[in-house]
Give the backbone structure.
Amino acid sequence: MNKSSSPHLNPLPQAGEEANELRRNTGKPLPRIVVGMSGGVDSSVTALLLKQQGYDVIGLFMKNWEDDDNSEYCSSRQDLLDAVSVADTIGIPIEAVNFSKEYKDRVFSYFLREYEAGRTPNPDILCNAEIKFKAFLDHAIALGADTIATGHYAQVREVDGAFQLLKAADASKDQSYFLHRLNQAQLSKAMFPLGNILKSEVRRIAEQHGLSNYAKKDSTGICFIGERPFREFLSGYLPTQPGQMFTPEGQLVGKHIGLSFYTLGQRQGLGIGGAKDSSGEPWFVAAKDMARNRLIVVQGHDHPLLLQAQVDVIDMHWISGAPPDLTRGYAAKTRYRQADAACHVAHHQDLTQFSFTDAQWAVTPGQSVVAYDGEICLGGGIIK
């Protein structure tokens, strides 16, 4: 049987029908779409689906990191080979482009500055806004692209000329959190063909079409760190400034290797499990005293210092270009792997304040608060 004839292999019938209608009405070839191909299964199936629907598809492999790029931690060479293999199977051209300078200037320098200041940044969010939907988008347009597509699990919807970012159908894979800094111009040029497909279905499609990477493990974390110990990586770029660990009451309980190497809510790697007068409960990082180079630690997951109902946010970005109606309630999350929590949002001069119905755990400066109205991602900002 011809695999492309299977009724289960076109999980985007609406998009396919729109594409066919456009071709019938204009008599012209379908638009050119440049797909960011990472060598993983998600971007591979993205390219496959668009090719099936008749679009003029070009693959583009981005190399964003060169320092210490080896097979042990973060090899882009194997990823490129996988992307080229898939492109050959699908029957589309593919180009490799090096954005490592842009990544270092726009993303990695910010990453280091934030850690040095004691905050915990999320470089993947900045990478989407500055590299994948800016440098990559500019390059794709130079290739004659009408639109770009990626393997992100999210959806875009146009309503009365405005573009909305929506959660993915697969809630366990939804990546709208990482895309919340995209603007109207970027969303107008973006397609997320996997937005209404389950991850299990994506792998099934890849396998049935003979894509060599159908079972490839998903990449996790930040590419330039890979699977290596985080402290080992960071110590190669930031100096260590050892200091002491104290309880909020002023009791000395241990030593730290440098405040940059810890994050709020951290439990592992503190080395103080047997501290004197210990209650037996695990220790957590609760705060950083940058002025005195002290790490403040507490015992118990639900210690009051780990809970926060009001969160101040700077650099707030609204996807629509303007704040929504702030007289009503919304939902938000203070970290990616977290359920939406009810909140109200208010503006106060140069910051935005999120007031949560239930206190949030280990709210971490440098991370992002992302707001939602049901399935619609409204935008977000950086925790002050």
User: Anything to note?
Assistant: Confidence is low (pLDDT under 50) at residues 1-16. The CA atoms of residues 133 and 186 lie 6 Å apart.
